Amino acid sequence: MTTPPPITITRLDLQRLERLLDSLDEYGPAAEALEAELARAQVVGHDEVPSGVVTMNSTVRCREEGSGKEYHLTLVYPDAVGGEGKVSILAPVGTALLGLSCGQTIDWPAPSGKPLKLTLLEVEYQPEAAGAYAR
């Protein structure tokens, strides 16, 4: 695995995600991974985040480098999972996408345990860029 790229998150997402972590009945590996990402993130105001950064409820286009397959994913809270392309922040790929900027590549642990390389190609929708802060 490579060193994870630098990430940026909004203060509002940080507060909401900390509340989510506090509310969990079981604090397992998924919560620990999210907590580690939050601890290393640069935190900015919701009006300061660049439009090419993945925030909560962002829809992104990314590519798995080994196969070249592209995915359209929306990063959501666990209670909003359902429907095609919605991925929980507590899923390994969800945690890995949070705060990523266009062009950055991450290692994504596949169900087989083998790391896959995922490159963020585009943030198709970001709530902050759209002025949708109460999400």
TrEMBL record:
Which key words tag this protein in UniProt?
Answer: Kinase, Transferase
From the record, what ranges are coiled-coil? Answer: none
Q: Which SUPFAM superfamilies match?
A: FKBP-like (SSF54534)
Residues forming the Regulator of nucleoside diphosphate kinase N-terminal domain are 5-44
Presence of keyword Kinase? yes
| Residues of the Transcription elongation factor GreA/GreB C-terminal domain | 50-125
What's the superkingdom here? Bacteria
* Gene Ontology molecular function, alphabetical: kinase activity
Keyword tRNA-binding attributed: no
Q: What is this protein called?
A: Nucleoside diphosphate kinase regulator
- Protein's organism: Pseudomonas schmalbachii
| Taxonomy of the source species | Bacteria, Pseudomonadati, Pseudomonadota, Gammaproteobacteria, Pseudomonadales
